[in-house]
Structure to design on (102 residues):
């Protein structure tokens, strides 16, 4: 049973990485809009589905998108538009931007 789960996890992670490799992040132009549809363009759909299965309250939420953009950023080694946008909002307000409180 455990081997089957490990194989499934391995296959899923490869699919997520493949999704992320196919995401194109323009290094010269960032769209700092907080539109969910634009943010989803830089997140693996499979990763979002997995997050929703692990924790159903993450389904179709901004926190799930934030987690997804963090994973994308780590894999692609560059910031996503959401991260740039949040940094800009924080700088504009000169306050902390609270997205989600636990």
């Amino acid at each position: 049973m455990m081997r089957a789960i490990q194989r499934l996890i391995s296959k899923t992670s490869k699919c997520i990485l493949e999704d992320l490799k196919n995401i194109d992040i323009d290094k010269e132009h960032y769209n700092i809009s907080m539109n969910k549809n634009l943010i989803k363009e830089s997140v693996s759909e499979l990763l979002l589905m997995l997050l929703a299965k692990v924790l159903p309250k993450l389904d179709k939420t901004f926190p799930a998108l934030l987690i997804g953009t963090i994973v994308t950023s780590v894999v692609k080694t560059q910031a996503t538009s959401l991260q740039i946008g949040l940094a800009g909002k924080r700088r504009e307000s000169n306050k902390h931007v609270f997205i989600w409180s636990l």
Remarks:
- The first helix runs from residue 2 to 21.
